[in-house]
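TASK: fixed-backbone design
INPUT:
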């Protein structure tokens, strides 16, 4: 994979129920792991030792839950300072968060969508630049799943492209979110893929979702990945190039071996994508 990526290959989200099994026998399938810094920063004792052991095994990336990039309340600079130290302590090579807001005067415990407007682009881009200045590095923003878009002046794709351009930041592409949104909002997932700035992609997420109705999918990270999402990942590799990809599973955690089967399937898709793309270039 190209040197521009902070990690390579296939990854898995780090979850505490798997720590003991990971410590006993490290799976060869895992090339990198992702954690939520809010769940680990400041911890000591056994948790700190476990995380340090994982950091010795594989590269880590951090995916934030509470930076509140799109919010109105001032950014929590004290947290950003702690985050910067945390990233250094564990040699974490990439930080990302969601293109959303999640707090006002307190945490809302939900990732809520930004309005797709020029004013919102300017607002969130300025906050992203502030975060990047504090951390001393570029960050990546993730395209979220959303269920309504009130007051939209532009498409989701236009919005995310404008934010990336104005903030001069990177992109964490969530393939499942693209599929979920395409069903819920009736747009073409392949057109969306082709409109993304491929040169800004750092890595990708792939996950499962819940089917509430034929035209209503709920992003849960609590189920196996379905065939249409696997197919969309194949198309992404074909159209944008092969990039590092991480399996997200947050709820209904199965045994680690079941997740590793899905991680291996990511690896197989990457190998097929690299072979296919090489033939096209030949």
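OUTPUT:
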């Amino acid at each position: 994979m190209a040197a521009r990526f902070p990690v390579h290959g296939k990854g898995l989200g780090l979850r505490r129920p798997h720590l003991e099994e990971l410590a006993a026998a490290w799976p060869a399938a895992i090339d990198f792991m992702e954690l939520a810094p809010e769940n680990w920063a400041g911890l000591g004792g056994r948790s700190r030792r476990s995380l340090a052991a994982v950091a010795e095994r594989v590269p880590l990336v951090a995916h934030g839950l509470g930076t509140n990039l799109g919010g109105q309340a001032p950014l929590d600079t004290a947290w950003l300072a702690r985050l910067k130290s945390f990233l250094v302590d564990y040699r974490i090579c990439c930080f990302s968060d969601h293109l959303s807001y999640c707090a006002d005067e307190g945490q809302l415990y939900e990732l809520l969508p930004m309005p797709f407007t020029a004013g919102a682009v300017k607002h969130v881009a300025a906050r992203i630049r502030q975060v990047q200045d504090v951390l001393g590095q570029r960050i990546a923003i993730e395209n979220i799943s959303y269920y309504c878009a009130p007051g939209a002046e532009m498409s989701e794709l236009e919005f995310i492209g404008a934010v990336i351009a104005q903030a001069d930041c990177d992109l964490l592409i969530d393939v499942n979110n693209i599929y979920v949104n395409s069903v819920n909002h009736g747009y073409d997932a392949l057109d969306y893929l082709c409109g993304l700035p491929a040169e800004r992609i750092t890595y990708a997420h792939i996950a499962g979702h819940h089917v509430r109705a034929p035209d209503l999918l709920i992003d849960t990270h609590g189920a196996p990945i379905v065939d249409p999402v696997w197919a969309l990942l194949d198309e992404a590799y074909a159209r944008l190039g092969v990039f590092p990809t991480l399996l997200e599973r947050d709820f209904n955690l199965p045994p680690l071996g079941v997740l590793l089967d899905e991680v291996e399937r990511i690896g197989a898709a990457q190998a097929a994508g690299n072979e296919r793309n090489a033939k096209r270039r030949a």
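COMMENT: The chain has a mean pLDDT of 92.
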